[in-house]
Amino acid sequence: MGILYDDVVIIRQPEKDGDPTVITVNCPDKTGLGCDLCRIILFFGLNIVRGDVSTDGIWCYIVFWVVGKQRTRWSLLKKRLIEACPTCSSASGISYYRSQSHPSNPPDVFLLNFSCYDRKGLLHDVTEVLCELELTIKKVKVSTTPDGKVMDLFFITDTRELLHTKKRKDETIEHLTEILGDAIISIDIELVGPEITACSQASPFLPTAITEDVFNLELPDLAQRGTLRSDYVSITMDNLLSPSHTLVQIMCQDHKGLLYDIMRTLKDYNIQISYGRFTTKPRGKCELDLFIMQADGKKIVDPNKQNSLSSRLRMELLRPLRVAIVSRGPDSELLVANPVELSSKGRPLVFHDITLALKMLGTCIFSAEIGRHLIGDREWEVYKILLDEGEGLSVGRNKIEEGVWKMLMGWE
């Protein structure tokens, strides 16, 4: 089956202000395609307010209705969405798609190393520039010296795979120099080998007290900070309505990246979606109907498999991220964690939103570190932010925790 390359992804702008932009994707199907597309849309700072998906197991048709930033780079978004679809070859102007036969090589890792004089909001401003340039932060180590200088180490990858070129490197340094201004002391970007990357890895395990008290993996019974109200989540599975699919019906509270969290879970379980519909309702409620099947093309009839999938979905809807402030001696440390996909991809824009929330709260960062850790049987991306309490926190701990949580959930 052939389709014009430009018709793989079509973006239609709204006729009236306030209406959503409509994104249509028409390409061959693959398990996890919905997750990959939702992740890209989330990375561009857009919220999905409605979605439809249908597939015959070979070809897939997906429509997203999205709202978000006015300065969204739609042409770049279209390019990234097309790249997420199965690879293609072209003949006579028609692009024919085929599944990728082998995984791509891991991207090169570069070390962005700079020092400058500290100021409020500095880390967020740098993070925002990197996001705009499509540079993904894999690891970061930030420290502040007693004389008010910061030493920042960012281990980054380039979505465009051009950071090895002088032009791309100079462009990145130019944008960062512009945002840092006269505060900059030195800045450099260099390609690092696997031995350097390995040395930068954080310990794979966190202290038991932190994993048990802060990142409890049990389903919460009562509402708490960092948890969506449990009565907002309803998950039912039905095997009677369809002869070949299991129907999953979900009702829950909306949050930033909701559809990504659901699709990520289904991708990790190797579940295929044949038909789905997602709608947002008044007062922040959402409803989803998903007709799914296992990789072998069969329904999910095993009660243990049903309970496992239902419990994981419920957990992802109740606690898509973990946010807490803990005491580290006399200081306060902000901890944020999100589960990593089995494909090793982390959640987009988490560090961006954390630093933005702290900047809006007027809270300074003394040091920061991003690492991946094993918690339970899963890999998590953990952000550890040591708050600067030199003159006392500008707001209380609970206020900081709540502000970061709301920013991450899109409720700010």
Largest β sheet strand count, sense and barrel closure? 8 strands, antiparallel
Strand content: 35-45%
Q: Count all strands and give the number.
A: 19
Coarse shape:
globular
* Helicity level: 25-40%
Mean pLDDT score, rounded? 86
Low-pLDDT residue intervals, each spanning 5 or more residues = 89-102
Can you offer a commentary on this structure?
This protein is α+β, with helices and mostly antiparallel strands and 412 residues long. 27% of the residues lie in helices and 36% in strands. The strands form 3 sheets. The chain has an 8-stranded antiparallel beta sheet with strand order 2-3-5-4-14-15-13-12, with helices on one face. Strands 11-8-10-9-18-19-17-16 form an 8-stranded antiparallel beta sheet, covered by helices on one side. Strands 1-7-6 form a 3-stranded antiparallel beta sheet, with no helix packed on it. The radius of gyration is 22 Å and the shape is globular. The chain starts with a strand and ends with a helix. Residues 89-102 have low confidence and may be disordered. Binds amino acids. InterPro entries: ACR1-12, ACR2/9/10_N, ACT-like_dom_sf, ACT_ACR9/10_C, ACT_dom. GO terms for molecular function: amino acid binding.
Task: Please describe the structure with a list of short key phrases separated by commas or semicolons.
412 residues, alpha+beta, 8-stranded antiparallel sheet, ACT domain-containing protein ACR, ACR1-12, repeat, ACR2/9/10_N
